[in-house]
Specification:
single chain; about 450 residues; alpha+beta; 8-stranded mixed β-sheet; 3-stranded antiparallel β-sheet; 18 strands; about 40% helix; globular
């Protein structure tokens, strides 16, 4: 959006599945593989938790899952570039690790998957961050977000071949069956849709961060875009006090599973007021609310917001009319469903075949030379929004209009001079006898004389 008053900080955190295989057998444990990936084999000093010159954070999460958190972005195109750059950064680490393994004559190929479940039934996350102005009624507003989050998988689910008590079927979402709470301040003891821990990474008197952890990891850039566009616009409605409260569901956990399992969009949901509605009807109500809100506002939608809003509506139409061809190059689940259908038809396979399960997994391989989705994208069968040169630049260059630029410039200069520094989302510190430290609490500030002075001390 063009008006400065509607700027928002966005961030995306992705946990990747990691394995090392040779001849269909695991050759290294995930922990051993992670040690090669982060260059820590035989070295106790190398870090597996680092902020990078592009402003992002790369670290090893619980369960040996590499996690990449984008820098703060106030542009959705920057967010797409940063997210895609994370895949390239991790792929570079894989290439170095493979070389090291070859030198040590350790067999196996390392695979990184941008998905949310493994063959053992474990789930790992994709977390969205949205900066909000602090308001006293925030907690009371959260309930009105849940029906939207539960039904948005209709247009931003990653798709999954799922084993259920009723057999194997195709579902909208990988994460839906692993959600157990609507809200919680924990992400380990429970798995909520929204994490309510109050950790704004900004001035706590002015801001708080909405931490959404219910979403799938997406391969298609248009799907990632519509996920953030729709949430941003829903939040605009909430901030204006116009978000509907009468769509609250009787049972959120049952509802998110039911919606995922019915790819017709007609899963029956019971509202808290006892009314029975379909998933599509709930999703359409939120879309209508946003369209009415946008039509009543003086701001001009950015090109990304306009496209995301149009894709949101088109995806719901595709489901309602049973015509996924309307979105089969843009929305993850539709791309995957078409691929699996054609493959199974060609080879006379059922959904419960091992070959289909393998295809489902390989869809999420981030290797540009073998990952199924990346090959579809390269051949024009999946739409791309970023430009390769911009993504390559985003590996080392932070967004220019947020605090990430201050952090990235500081890290880059320290690396150039060989100086040791300590960095997190808000702190920049020279790790020497002076221990000079700057606290950057404004995520919208890309210029700060204090940081320039600190860089001068390096």
């Amino acid at each position: 959006m063009s008006d400065q008053s509607v700027r928002r900080i966005f961030g995306l955190e992705t946990e990747f599945g990691l394995t090392c295989m040779s001849n269909a057998q695991r050759t290294l444990t995930p922990d051993e593989t992670a040690r090669f990936l982060f260059g820590r084999e035989g070295s106790a000093s190398s870090s597996s938790n680092a902020f990078l010159a592009n402003g992002s954070r790369l670290y090893l999460d619980v369960g040996s899952h590499p996690e990449y958190a984008t820098a703060e972005c106030d542009s959705l195109l920057d967010l797409l570039n940063q997210d895609r750059a994370g895949e390239l950064i991790l792929h570079d680490l894989v290439c170095v690790a493979q070389h090291t393994m070859a030198e040590q004559e350790i067999p196996g190929n390392i695979y990184l998957f941008k998905n949310n479940t493994d063959s053992s039934g474990n789930s790992y996350g994709c977390h969205e961050n949205y900066l909000l102005r602090r308001r006293n009624d925030f907690d009371g507003q959260l309930d009105s977000l849940l029906p939207f989050l539960i039904t948005r998988q209709l247009f931003c689910g990653a798709g999954k071949v799922l084993k259920t008590p009723r057999g194997v079927q195709f579902a909208f979402s990988q994460r839906a069956d692993h959600m157990w709470d609507g809200f919680s301040s924990s992400t380990t003891r429970s798995r909520p849709m929204i994490n309510t821990r109050d950790e704004p990474h900004a001035d706590p008197d002015l801001y708080r961060r909405l931490h959404v952890i219910v979403g799938d990891s997406n391969m298609a850039e248009p799907t990632t875009l519509v996920k953030f566009v729709s949430m941003d616009l829903i939040l605009r409605v909430l901030e204006a006090g116009r978000l509907r409260r009468d769509l609250a569901l009787e049972n959120n956990i049952r509802a998110i599973r039911d919606v995922s399992h019915d790819t017709t969009g007609r899963a029956k949901l019971t509202l808290a007021n006892g009314k029975i509605v379909t998933a599509l009807e709930v999703a359409q109500q939120y879309l209508n609310l946003v369209k009415d809100f946008v039509d009543s506002q003086p701001f001009v939608l950015s090109a990304e917001h306009a496209y995301g809003l149009e894709l949101w509506e088109r995806a719901l139409t595709a489901i309602e009319t049973d015509n996924p061809s309307l979105i089969e190059t843009e929305i993850d689940w539709a791309i995957k469903q078409r691929l699996i259908h054609l493959y199974a038809q060609k080879h006379n396979l059922s959904l419960d075949s091992a070959a289909v399960a393998q295809l489902d997994l390989c869809f999420h391989d981030i290797d540009p030379n073998r990952g199924i989705f990346r090959l579809l994208e390269a051949s024009g069968q999946a739409r791309r929004l970023t430009r390769p040169n911009d993504v390559s630049a985003a590996k080392t260059t932070p967004p220019a209009t947020t605090r990430a630029k201050l952090r990235g410039d500081f890290i880059a200069k320290a690396a150039l001079l060989g100086r040791e520094v300590i960095v997190d989302w808000t702190h920049l510190k020279i790790n020497d006898a002076t221990q000079r430290t700057i606290i950057c609490n404004d995520p919208f500030a890309s210029v700060d004389q204090r940081v320039d002075d600190l860089i001068g001390f390096l």
